[in-house]
Amino acid sequence: MSEVEQIEFLGAGGQTLAGRLHVPAVEPVAWAIFAHCFSCSKESRAARYISAALAERGIATLRFDFTGLGESEGDFEQTTFARDVGDIVAAAAALRDRYLAPALLVGHSRGGTAALAAAAEIPEVVGVATVGAPFHSSSVAGALDAGAIGRLKKALLVFHSPQDNVVSIDDAREIFLAARHPKSFVSLDGADHLLGRRQDARYVADVLASWASRYLPAGPQPEVPEDAPEGDVVVEGKTTGYLQRIKARHLTFASDEPLDKGGTDVGPNPYELLLASLGACTSMTLKMYAARKEWPLESVRVTLRHDRIHAKDCEDCEKESGMIDVIGKRLELEGDLTEEQRTRLLEISARCPVHRTLLNEIKIRSELI
């Protein structure tokens, strides 16, 4: 899990540039910069997913808006490729002054080509990764030649889709051939240029994080805490955002809010966790019951939804005023079951422990410690 902090710094032209810094929950093993695609922003799907994935692997990652884009100052119409390169170098200087210089540069589309050019000016960089980067585009033509790529002496990872209809895969081939080893190429078969499909952005993020670990120093091994007693759950969060770290026994996972609610969208929100608890308990209960009866239940799918309605609109509710919480639970049962068995399983679904807890009188006692 990681925290996302707002950060500002001066770009190459003196304008204030806005960024988001993904900081790991543990001491970072390294720092990285993500450069977004031409006319995109730091909030693009690729920027968010890749930055978050690197932070999950212990690499603190800065994604920022180039001059004139997103929340950054400046006139986008006046920007050039050289200015983009300068902005990346300025971002590296900001990290160097406040934290540690970046060891990794990641760039998407023209941001990838700019990252290749900027790497030569940032001595601490040990690896560069490009996603759908152009080499012959008019926006970068003449700014970076094969000789410059060959002289980088940085590890290189090239991602490109054969179906990219914005930047030809021939550009990726020339970048790859120009570079010296160590270098790697990953074909994003079926992906579009902007990584519009969620699974494509996640795939790039996962592969990139694994590749980077080979060239970065190993991080300190965190102390392994003792398992919490079964039944105890610990939730921790900073005041800078909604991201929460949840510990249950030896397990750690996250809760967050979506981007449109002010969160960073790296985990389910609290109500989604509540519904997940009810759904998991329901599925487990049905499987145990069917196994005991030796019924041919193969799989269970539970779909849940939480709503709030006016009490006057609820025909089977005792409460007559105010609002009522309603949880809808739909069951899909796979297997050669009779109608009688299916009906009985529906009845049993209401007997799972979490279902009964939610229907019982609940008291929550809070205290400061």
Give a structural overview.
With 369 residues, the chain is of the alpha/beta class. The protein has helices spanning 45-56, 81-98, 110-119, 146-150, 169-178, 198-213, 270-293, 339-349, 353-359; strands spanning 2-10, 16-24, 30-35, 59-64, 104-108, 127-131, 155-160, 183-187, 233-237, 244-248, 251-255, 299-310, 323-334. The chain has three domains: 2-213, Rossmann fold; 226-267, no CATH class; 270-359, GMP Synthetase, Chain A, domain 3. It is built from nine helices and 13 strands. The strands form three sheets. The protein has an eight-stranded mixed β-sheet, sandwiched between helices. Helix 2 (81-98) crosses helix 3. The two termini are 26 Å apart. The mean pLDDT is 88.
